[in-house]
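Supplementary Note 3. Input sequence used for the single-chain structure prediction.
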Amino acid sequence: MNIVKSVLRILIALAASYSMQVLAYTPPLGIPEPVWGSLHPIETTAPARPTGWPAAEVTGYYYIDNSHPNATDTNNPYGYPDKPRLTFSQRSFPAGSYVEMHGNPDFGRVRKAFNCTEANPCWLRGTPGNMPVITGSLEIEGAYLFMEYLDFNGGSNGAIAVLGADTHHISIRHSQFRNRAYVSHTSGIGMSPFAGGKVQDIVVYKNNFEALGDWLATADEDFHGITASMAGRDATAECKNIWMLENTFFHLSGNGVQLLAGNWTNSEDYLHHIYIGKNVAHDNRQSGFWSKQASHVIISENVSYNNREHGLQPGDGIGYQYGPDNIWIMFNTIYASNSGIRQSDTSLAAYASHTAYIIGNVIYDIHPEPGSIYYDPGQPVRSGQAINLWHGTMTRYILNNTIYDVHGGINLVFRGPAYIHGNIIKDVDGQDTHIYNFHSYDITDIGGNLFDDGDSSVKTKISWHGVTYNSLAAFTGATGLCDTCLETNPLFMNTTTPNLALSADSPAINKNTTVLRDVLRRFELLYGINIEKDIRGNPRFAGVVSDIGAIEDQSSPPPVKPRAPQLLTAR
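The predicted structure, written as discrete structure tokens, is reproduced below.
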């Protein structure tokens, strides 16, 4: 099926007026491929320069270079390489427009409309190795626009705002967003519809976000890399089908990505189907990737590390708050931060029907910052936890994560059901616990986990509703929970992180419960994608069971053909 789809796409493209190059793009696990009919927002390449260039203007082709000695706007509506325009003055561009920018375009903050179509897309671009340096800000509305090779370097506040009453099919790729000063809450790329409008089918691919705001500030400073927001809107507006893929976020004073639908009833239903995949975020003041109100959010195959506590920001790899629904945090690698995955501020009754899934992540080297205001071993809300769920109410599935070398393992505070199955938690600091649960009566199920502290006489330490148990047998005997759990060394192939694969004789092989498979089939029913795989993309199941942890042992028997998905209790 995938081969047929690719062949059809190429044949359609060859019949169109643009060119396509088949690249090595592979969607992250669980994230659908962003295809726009006959166009592909990642693989479609720009048209060739017109034959009239460099010596003459060509209708529909704009050339801007304020650094050129012959540049002028006088009697020069389009510009061309030998005689560029100085400015980017046209307000609205018709279908098929091609705009090439060079030099240091000086336009402050402007709004541009691109009234383009699938058959005649528009282009706004620099060139590889010769990006225009832009200190201004662009507000973009319209449809079927490709933006690429632009360097938003210097200036202040946001660089690109995607907005409008009906803005769709915008691709922003291969560009830079850096060295911009913070003035007020903002982002390198922001997406937000007008009141009563829609923004949808936006792809942000392979861009670099660096030095936005002061990442060492101790005061709150929200300069994010990418935002999708419905703040100030209502149910007449919508933002959906947003892809953020293979970007890098470094030294930001906010999050790499932040989603925010706004604090109004059911707002999460109007910011939905957001895909965050294969990005890298590190050394940011806040977290790598963060969702507030939103729904159907898939955060997959990202790497987040070295996000440390600054002021009131506790230093998280990935997190969420304000009750997003159907948020899937899976197949990510998180390390060298003060918390791995953190949940905050989700205790309202309205969030009780919402669900979060934390599946198949590798999390290691998670410890409190020295002198942290967020770490007190006597308090349930504390940093240094691999999966740190500070506020409850939502249902959480915590399945098949590999957790290694952390201060604490899974920390649940306040109410909210949780299914905790198939996790490996190894080498927890002796001061802390493998699992800490402040409200045990809300735990729905726990089983099939593996605990080990290799350097301690206490191999398992679980705190359960005020009582601490120093062995798995003591915990199971007192609570009746975790009777399928193991207390033993998982026998990693190599504990030199991040290679935490299981050796061939690991006791974790084929010992998982069936909860994982049921939840992965729920995902397939919701999104039409089979994710019965481990973090490396290898088949997950041999027969009806899988291995404990995030990485499936490849010495296991080959998987059987999966049966048809069956519905659990899914919203």
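Residues 1-23, 557-571 have pLDDT under 50 and may be disordered. The CA atoms of residues 231 and 263 lie 7 Å apart.
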